[in-house]
Amino acid sequence: MKKVKLVATDLDGTFLRNDRSISKANLLALDELGKKGILRVVATGRNLRKAKEVLGDDIPFDYVVFSSGAGVFNWKTKQHIYHQNIIESSAQKLLSHFIRKGESFHAFFPVPENHQHYYYRGTEPSEEFERYFTFNQYFAEELNTDALPQTELCQFLVIIKENEKHFNELKTEIEALCPEIRVVRTSSPITKGYIWIEVFHRLVSKGNGVLEVCRRHNIDPKQTMAIGNDYNDFDLLAFARHSFLTANAPHEIKNRFPLLPSNEEDAFARAVELLQE
């Protein structure tokens, strides 16, 4: 692990505390990595605007892989260096499918403007959908079902109550509809009892976003470390040579990777300490 040249971390539930603050220990760990010339990368499901809400310009990361890998942003130069959206034809199929199924969903504008989105209320009321809408309504536009947007889209977010059968059925339908699409399951960061189904182009993943950074710096994936806490971190953790889950990860996935302390106990800083051992 002393050969590691890049460390990537998820934000919510991993690098950030539950109140979205950053511990002193984690900041010191970032500084230590910088002194050693090790690249520091955020790999988050947040869009770039939401990442900036919790990361000030003075937080010493080098890159932000945002929207689960749909875009990569150079944190130092403030430049977008990579993006991958859903092509227009697939976006049209997915919009029509979710409307026909009566699902509640959000459809996000192409990167880099993907903090803006269309919303559609399904046939069944959803408290979780309304909570998300309340938090993001300033950037929301109601979907006009009579004139669907003819454009690429970054991603879809379909919100359902926690139901394994329903999730698996939707996943199968979506992947059969558009073979170039991938489906990512995420535990709701707002309310327990809901599943967030995120739909992206198949090339979008946190792992591929970090790979783009590796390519630009001639770093072998074997020289990487990653820390995460949830289902949507699996591709990142599978990509990196040295990978860890935090103790606050869902119980059913804790056996997938070695465990660190929780995000409330400076998991990121503990991972950086391991580099010295």
Can you characterise this structure?
With 277 residues, the chain is an alpha/beta fold. The protein has two domains: 6-84 and 204-274, Rossmann fold, CATH 3.40.50; 88-201, Hypothetical Protein, Haloacid Dehalogenase-like Hydrolase, Chain: A, domain 2 (2-Layer Sandwich). Helix content is 32%, strand content 24%. An eight-stranded mixed sheet has the order 5-4-3-2-1-12-13-14. Helix 2 packs parallel to helix 9 (267-274). The longest helix has 14 residues, at 88-101. The radius of gyration is 18 Å and the shape is globular. It starts with 5 loop residues before the first strand and ends with a helix.
Any idea what the shape is?
globular
Strand content: 15-25%
Instruction: Report the CATH C-level class of the largest domain.
Output: Alpha Beta
CATH superfamily of the largest domain: HAD superfamily/HAD-like
Termini separation comes to 8 Å
Largest sheet: 8 strands, mixed
Name the CATH architecture of the largest domain: 3-Layer(aba) Sandwich
Query: What is the strand arrangement across the widest sheet?
Result: 5-4-3-2-1-12-13-14
Integer-rounded radius of gyration: 18 Å
Seen as an oligomer or otherwise, the chain set is single chain
Tally of DSSP β-strands: 14
Helix content: 25-40%
CATH fold-level name of the largest domain: Rossmann fold
Number of domains: 2
Structural class: alpha/beta
Poorly predicted ranges: none
Number of helices, counting only DSSP H or I runs of 4 residues or more = 9
SSE pattern, N- to C-terminal: EHHEHEEEHEEHEEHEEHEHEEH
